[in-house]
Input
Amino acid sequence: MQTILKVVFAFAIIAASVLPFFSDTADAKTSYMRAKNKVYYALQNGQPLKEEYIKTNKKGESIYRQTYTKTGDSSTFNMKETKTGLYYYDDKNLSYPIKLNKSWKVRGIKQKVIDDDATIKVKAGTFKHVVVTRDYRSDNTKNNFYYIVEYYAPNVGEILEITHEKIGYYEKHKYHPGTLSVGKEFELTKIKNK
Output
């Protein structure tokens, strides 16, 4: 009997440590940050862009270089991931742990998780378990609004960013409601090993 209990106990320990690796959904330990050993290609506002890791600074932030491949113009940006979230500079892009309808503020603008298990297809491929966030601006109305929807894939980071805008206007004392404009600000097109 003692041997059976030892076997059952050993099996339970093994199962508890191995099963999370076979889970089909993202968990609390899932990273949404760019991998340091990959090069990311994207279109940002229609312009081809390359992103790659350079180094980690003294604050523990990962520094990435963005280069517009047509013009050669480049800049850097800092990212870090902590137990509380994914940060782009000091702005919290994602708040951990990921939960549907969870919200937080960035520079006074409410951010909210509107999907925590989406499947999204972009030029770089199809990604599962994507977290989708949307901002909610206080000055948005039914006829005048602007908001951004961002899509984050596990172990890849942002794969898509779409803006939604409708701006009404007055002309000769008559209000014109404007038309809805939806645009891709950012779309991941390719991922390569360094």
Summary: The first helix runs from residue 2 to 18. The helical segments are 2-18. The two ends are 54 Å apart (CA to CA). Residues 4-26 have pLDDT under 50 and may be disordered.
